[in-house]
Amino acid sequence: MTVLKTSMRNFVAHKGRMALSAVAVLLSVAFVCGTLVFTDTMNATFDKLFANTASDVSVGPKKDDDAQETGKPQALPAALRAKLAKVDGVAKVEPHVTSMQLTVVKGKNKSLSPTSGAPTVGTNWDESQQKSVEITSGHAPHGAAEAVLDADTAAKHGVKTGDELRVLAVPGDFTVRVAGIATFKTTNPGAALLYFDTATAQTKLLGSADAFSSYGLTAASGVSDEQLKERVTAVLGSSAGGSDEYTVRTAAESKEENKKNVGSFLDVMKYALLGFAGIAVLVGIFLIVNTFSMLVAQRTREIGLMRAIGSSRRQILRSVLVEAVLLGVVGSVLGIGGGIALAVGLMELMGSMGMKLDMGELTIKAATPVVGLTIGVLVTVLAAVLPAVKATRISPMSALRDAGTPADGKAGKVRATIGVLLTALGGLALVAAAKADDAKAGSGMLGLGVFLSLVGFIVVGPLLAGFVVRVISAVVLRVFGPVGRLAERNALRNPRRTGATASALMIGLALVAALSVVGSSMVASATDQLDKSVGADFIIQNENGQPLSPAQSKAVRSAGDVAHFTRITTVNAKLTLPDGKTVKQGLNASESTYGEDLITETVQGKFADVWGKDAMSVPEGFAKDHGIKLGDELTVAMADGRTAGLRVKAITSDDTSINKGGMFLALDTARQYLPADKMPLDMLVLAKASDGRTKEAAAALKASVEQYPQIKVRDQSDYKKLIQDQVGQLLNMIYGLLALAIIVAVLGVVNTLALSVVERTREIGLLRAIGLSRRQMRRMIRLESVVIALFGALLGLGLGMAWGTTSQKLLALQGLGVLDIPWPTITAVFLGSAVVGLLAALVPAFRAGRMNVLNAIATD
């Protein structure tokens, strides 16, 4: 009880000094709890949506990995409906039509498709739809000229009942009038939804009045879902092709399947966010270690008195750890509340992107606060262990003399030796990764090298501080005269503290630098490959990644001032190889002008020969692995088509990132062995302008697809910018998440300076007494902060560039062979660190400048 009282008294007495450490715990716990609450809420809302929309038993086409992907929606015969209706236990059969291969356009070619990556879905309006949505304006669709639009899409694009929309689907384009607006009863998954009557959906979306996408079966009273599934499977098994043609699921199985599809995305998001939270926790540990180390140092005499009057080492240890527990509990409780607020913010953000999440579905599982509290308390206690153990080693007599604990030179040498050894091992691992011939083995060595070098730099930080701080000071501080020298000595006074404070900042900046190098190298490599390989003037493709419909492809190829077009698609096949193995493979089918539009290096044979009859190419690595030689004939079984004997006319180089590992054959060869209805749609089209008519060709191409807003015509510079923007968006998102770790690191600098000011109260008073002005005092604190921040930045940026350079060497195995160090970014981060140091010192410097000189000198 005495220990608890003492700990409580010390905690309350130093609550101001504990505040920033509590904020670090708060931020870390908030990130973890916010992630858990957000993903749990997403799962709960989708569970509700799937439960509301699932039929007792559903029948759909079986996804066949061996089938040809044509780009057209899969369908079941309409005749199957009558057969299912006769199954014993079926009360009702509802046919469903669904297609995600359409675009909806309003007015002058304004697309209503989501920009978040969610699909545009066309479906038929029936009773099952009314489980998830209700018409809140207008009426249900009747006839081919009417449709119902979801309320979120309508509100976003200003669509009202009576407006005319154009629907671009695979079978063809058509026009409808908005007859009604449907509002979701649960969660809008972010998609744009358009509802038609059933007959219209069949003919306009599937291209046939005799087809449906799936069937929903309602079980008769007294018949369970499992029983109905068994009966349906038995009946379908007796049909031609058997039950292998169909997928039969109960409501629970459908719900689980849908959860699995959504869950994979949510899991990636969840673990990515938790990973960044983990980085913030790691950085927070440095802050807490520094806080308790300085508090223990400042209470040396107090601890000596406690030991002198009979407190045991165990009681001193327990006292410090109890303070840590109190800090962890306070920070964690606040962090749990902050996490819930963060989850609400994320839900609002998703809502702005089109996915409306009902706040009434906010899900806080019992495990979430338990996890948050456990992490906060455990991390705080672990961080306080070393300072607590140090407190127990303080000699009562030396403490009473205010001598503190003598520096342990032996321990410092051991620490430095271990740090140098770990750093060297990390460096060797990074070198081994850079020289690896296999990406998998190299990735393992890269991970080991990152871990060892990071730990090594953290351990050896105090040793580096003595040298690096002096170098920085010689460049940055000497111009400030005596004040600059005082700031330098303050930073060097306790190298271990300076190293720990800088290490917190180092971690975040190392990741920023590494990712910057990787991202910049990826863009530079892709740009280099485009310059070397792409001979086409224009690349035309669907923005949402879907293939071009026949009408869209025809419109593209109607443009004038174009010397030639090259259509490209993918054909699924099974290859029987000389070594007897059979492999599934997607073959790139194209026209003979492909070799002009996308220059492909070969190691054997001529690429131009691939476009002859019954010819193909294979990549260098594939040929080596399977013993394929130039001139060999491979047995190629086209999915849903005939088997061909194709002769290898070229072996392509693997030294590229464009179509690396691709196999090629002529489009005419694919047509020869595939039925017309099984030919896949064009994935993209390349175009070469007529001589001297590049501008005119660009205008003609853009005019030809003006009615299709989802199709983009890009020249090479546009495509390079697209790659740069995509990489940049990804990096900006990662930088945003890493900002939490950097904020925690900045709090560490603030806390270190604030506690340092308290520790040096008497010294500050004496400096003021001998003539140092308030302004000079504030400048000294700010300069000390800048040096610590720049020290951390130098370590982090150097380490990060080493990681990034090694990563690029591994990417070179995939054809991304250009190393590009983004010096503007690195320089901006380094200079930004100085600004961070200045900002972090504002409050401590202000406090130091306001100290009363006589009171400061008299401080015990």
TrEMBL record:
Entry's family note: Belongs to the ABC-4 integral membrane protein family.
Main location, first listed in the record: membrane
GO CC terms, sorted: plasma membrane
Source organism of this protein record: Streptomyces klenkii
Gene Ontology MF terms: transmembrane transporter activity
Annotated compartments: Cell membrane
MacB-like periplasmic core domain boundaries: 19-234, 498-700
Domain (ABC3 transporter permease C-terminal): residue spans on this chain: 276-396, 737-852
Keyword list, A-Z: Cell membrane, Membrane, Transmembrane, Transmembrane helix
Membrane topology: Multi-pass membrane protein
Protein name: ABC transporter permease
Keyword Calcium: no
Keyword Cell membrane: yes
Residue intervals passing through the bilayer: 271-297, 320-346, 366-389, 416-434, 454-480, 501-524, 733-758, 783-803, 823-846
InterPro entries associated with the record: ABC3_permease_C, MacB_PCD, Macrolide_Exporter_MacB
